[in-house]
Design brief:
Elements: E1 11-13, E2 28-30, E3 59-62, E4 79-82, E5 167-176, E6 186-198, E7 209-212
Parallel strand pairs: 3-4
Antiparallel strand pairs: 1-2, 5-6, 6-7
């Protein structure tokens, strides 16, 4: 399917009345109010009396040889793409934008054991930029901090098939005794961050090497 939107081209024409008769006055602009959309897809909605609330997909794009997906995998989706590369976005400023008012703007997930949830690359600049929040602090204070490195049981959670630059978050779950009679220990979960500093070498069967990113002291959130 090919779609071509109307070009935003205007011309000046003599004025006419409601009946199409020429009337005096300066020439007026005539043409579309803006460049037209090439392809527009809008999914159908379900009968409000039915239990199913999800609506149909706006556009479903499948690469050659890809079977039709089940309807429940595309319900409520604006644009669904499936193929060797599901969706590709290219632009001189931004390739893809994900925006939401209540949920997550962009979510990437890999189901294969060796897959990555997301990959970021650049020629010279940082591969990833986080826009920081700003807060005014009248009397900033600082102190020396000695981070603690966790060792016990960690290696079993680090993949052998790592690539240099891989960033991995691992939750450390420990049992903590409770001061409540009759109740057993509770679980305390602490997130740790690891960077792959040496890629796996399959030729020598050498596993990837990881290093923990050591952070400062713990601070409880207040907003």
């Amino acid at each position: 399917m090919y779609g071509q939107g109307a070009d935003f081209i205007t011309t000046r024409v003599p004025p006419v009345d409601a009946s199409g008769n020429s009337i005096p006055g300066p020439d007026l602009l005539s043409g579309p109010i803006g460049a037209g959309t090439g392809v527009l897809g809008r999914g159908g909605v379900n009968d409000p009396t039915e239990m199913q609330a999800a609506s149909g997909a706006g556009v479903v794009g499948l690469a050659g040889g890809v079977a039709l997906p089940p309807a429940n995998s595309t319900d409520g989706v604006g644009v669904f793409g499936q193929g060797t590369l599901g969706v590709s976005g290219t632009g001189p400023v931004i390739g893809v934008i994900g925006n939401t008012s209540t949920g997550t703007g962009v979510f990437g997930s890999a189901t294969a054991k060796s897959g990555r949830g997301g990959m970021f690359a650049s020629n010279e600049a940082a591969q990833l930029q986080l826009f920081p929040h700003s807060i005014e602090v009248k009397n900033p204070d600082s102190k020396l901090s000695t981070p603690l490195e966790l060792n016990g049981g960690i290696p079993q959670a680090l993949p052998k098939a790592g690539f240099g630059g891989d960033l991995l978050a691992i939750n450390i779950v420990t049992k903590v005794a409770q001061d409540v009679p009759g109740k057993g220990p509770s679980e305390l979960t602490t997130c740790t961050l690891w960077l792959c500093v040496r890629s796996e070498d399959k030729n020598t069967s050498t596993p990837a090497v990881w290093s923990q990113i050591l952070l400062g002291g713990l601070v409880s959130g207040q907003i």
